[in-house]
């Protein structure tokens, strides 16, 4: 035990190669501070690891003045601190005597605490701690900056002082000091009128809920307890609290507080220092984003309300007539027989007609995706999926062992428990038999928060099905069951109401396999279903799976794409969706988009027009809307048709670039679209840009996000930027520009220093794949010297894993340099065989930032006289090269 001496311990330096100072020597303790800290946890014993790579400690509780409002304090506690990598630290705090709930390794594989530590040489972070009260701090060694510090400050406004660690069964509290200049991002999922950077004096509630993203600042479909923290000078780090329980994160002027309803405190710190490094380190732990099939980067069309095959078919036809690209057609729950999963309505979606339609899509190089919900109807004794689920015993259970009854679209349902050892095989079986009838290409898993139209645990069904889908009609009180799990003592700000947790979802005492209760597992339902669905789709198609999930958790990106959910159709919805899309890149789910033109509410021509211009450049580009509103297909307005042709036309030309970013996302975790500060972390102006974004590091999209607007103010980080539609240039020192934005145009600019692969536009991605390549090589304006580089990754787009392998894929690296007006562009190949076999051709090169007069060209040392076209002021497009992309080449030019 710590001595009773009245000392406040000094910060004890750990890890860095300084000898451990005496523990209790130090700063005299502050009376006011200590007074607030009665009932605190103090460090009582410690065991250091070899090589100073961490320690294990025991915390005792000073019991005299505890506060039992939220339950009794757990005593003693176990703390484990480990440097797991040069740039990754884990701090784990739990009950010393009893094991507690934690995110299962089966869902999120990661090093176990019991595993042997690998030696990490020269770690870039250090840990210090205080004994009394117990607190720890994480420091970036390179500059000594404290990144996280859970010890309350001893001075300052007393009202601003936070508690030291609190650890009870159903209430865990831990805070960190933060400098007021820190720039925080992340902590989802919610719709954010504040913009990208987190505002102070805000509480972020993390509890998966079936609420439309049209609602702002409330907990939505998933839980992502991860934030990115940028400090002065442009160094970033990330903080993950790996915990699946409901929680609030409260962000105040000088600190941030986690208030968590259970589980353990399992923190991971990722040192960066760039935002891309942080996401790389974070996804290395939680799972690299799943590679997405090539076709999924094409445009998608959906609507709840395509009530039969011919309506669905007509939409595909209309896209073709309007010459708007369309890769993938979707159906919502309309296709189902009485909303039963894996069934079709015999009248509206007769199998033969439906199958012929899907075959026709495939014949035209298009794809087809269907929705599936977790609730399995119990209303029909001949419903095979339900019966086989009963036999495999995979449904969620009540405490007494009976199947738990809820109500969703089909009426009375049981919910599969994807923790059950039989559940995945059952899900695969059902997917397989349905796939055998309708060969769909992707599965869209909705309502998996888990949504339930009834509340409570004591519902029964009287055998009647009513045609009222959204209110509860089962026989039950339809109120929260008064258990400590449904209504915990500490009430998080769930949906702005502080109601209990079990509202319109499974009751919190519902049991998963092995007795795990919904209270702990709730936020993981979407992840567990996504894992099973990804597996099912992989098995049945034997190709790279496409899964779109509404609910998710940390690690979901390894299995699924995501969309921003049920938004509205206002310009605010459009603007906020950009913020959500950027946040999901940070959460490791880079395949993300919003319902273009808005899901709920009526849209307008203006909104839909501007929305397709933005949505065309989001990784997942899908229009979708609600049966309750008028149709919103792009071709319904002439103006929107023209905008869509233009914006999607550029997107389709960019498909090899999007696909290369997909490869990069899978290898490094990098978001496909990124906030500006990802590419310009040392430019503080970028931290405040909310509605512009980058594709990769080099293409800046500056959309219109307000009504009746034809000119916008947009920020351009330093350098030369060229407009990708008219090749006009912007030369920025890091400043705002006023850009014209005529109704049919979106501003898309490419940055100097880049080589970008383009193909030709077409109405499907498969057609694009057959077209020749053009390389865009961008130098700074007016410079006599400069460098540019880029690369493209090519494979068949559908292999289950995405990898660089001879005969399977090619990686082509482009490098260009300019010296005294003489330039050279070269390619290098890793595995040329695949590109050669596919017969891809390099047709043209667009040189930007060069003197376009009297330029002579040499291709592989031979003088050539290609077709030329002047673009803008400093652009030259040469074409007709007709050279295999799979062979290395060298292009030289000079101005004579
Ligand atoms: C105990 O904690 C609760 C919640 O923070 C607070 O409202 C209450 O005032 C505290 N009681 C005492 C005696 O400090
Ligand atoms: C913080 O938010 C609360 C509640 O919305 C409000 O009453 C208070 O004035 C805000 N404080 C600051 C400093 O913005
Ligand atoms: C799995 O399903 C089989 C029947 O197919 C059943 O006998 C078995 O009990 C189920 N396993 C569990 C753990 O419920
Ligand atoms: C899945 O299908 C296989 C083959 O038909 C069958 O043997 C197995 O019992 C099924 N499993 C479940 C859980 O439905
Ligand atoms: C069954 O429940 C429904 C909905 O509450 C009700 O309208 C209906 O009258 C009930 N039927 C019987 C037979 O009790
Ligand atoms: C709460 O749950 C218990 C046990 O399942 C049940 O007996 C009781 O009726 C429930 N209360 C409500 C309001 O649903
Ligand atoms: C946009 O212009 C239309 C037509 O002039 C007008 O009806 C509408 O009120 C304007 N909207 C806004 C937000 O200014
Ligand atoms: C750019 O304009 C926005 C408002 O349109 C403003 O908030 C921002 O401070 C400006 N940035 C710079 C660097 O001037
Ligand atoms: C381009 O090169 C020509 C010929 O060398 C020269 O006369 C002209 O000034 C150059 N233009 C620019 C913009 O540097």
Automatic annotation (TrEMBL):
A biological process term (GO) from this entry: carbohydrate metabolic process
Keywords, in A-Z order: Glycoprotein, Glycosidase, Hydrolase, Signal
Xref: PROSITE patterns: GLYCOSYL_HYDROL_F31_1
SUPFAM superfamilies: (Trans)glycosidases, Galactose mutarotase-like, Glycosyl hydrolase domain
Superkingdom: Eukaryota
Stretches assigned to the Glycoside hydrolase family 31 TIM barrel domain: 290-661
Every Glycosyl hydrolase family 31 C-terminal domain range: 669-756
Signal peptide range in chain numbering: 1-25
InterPro entries: Gal_mutarotase_sf_dom, GH, Glyco_hydro_31_AS, Glyco_hydro_31_C, Glyco_hydro_31_N_dom, Glyco_hydro_31_TIM, Glyco_hydro_b
One GO MF term attached to the UniProt entry: carbohydrate binding
Keyword Glycoprotein: yes
Keyword Signal: yes
Domain Glycoside hydrolase family 31 N-terminal stretches: 115-248
Family indicated by similarity: Belongs to the glycosyl hydrolase 31 family.
Record protein name field: Maltase
Species: Physcomitrium patens
